[in-house]
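sorry to bug you again but im stuck and you know this stuff better than me. what follows is a protein written twice so to speak, once as letters and once as structure tokens for the fold. mainly i need to know what kind of three dimensional shape the backbone takes. anything you notice is useful, everything is just below:
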Amino acid sequence: MKHRAEYYAKAFAALVAEAKSDKERETLIKNLAALLQKNGDASSAPKVVILAERFIRKALGGREWVVETARSLPESEKKRLRALSGS
């Protein structure tokens, strides 16, 4: 690995924050993939994605919620969870 996954993730998150459209974000994703491949760091792509997601979420003030249930939830419960999370 040439560069640490954290460096790629921070740079990518900063660029995504400045992107004005989905098309720009799509181009950034393609460029990141090409850069990782070019630098021989393609194997670290999953870690870069996870870290970038965390940095972006933190910059936007969001949180990650994981809800596990033994059975699938009825739609009414899903709506309550969405309302609680603000999404």
User: Anything to note?
Assistant: The chain has a mean pLDDT of 89.
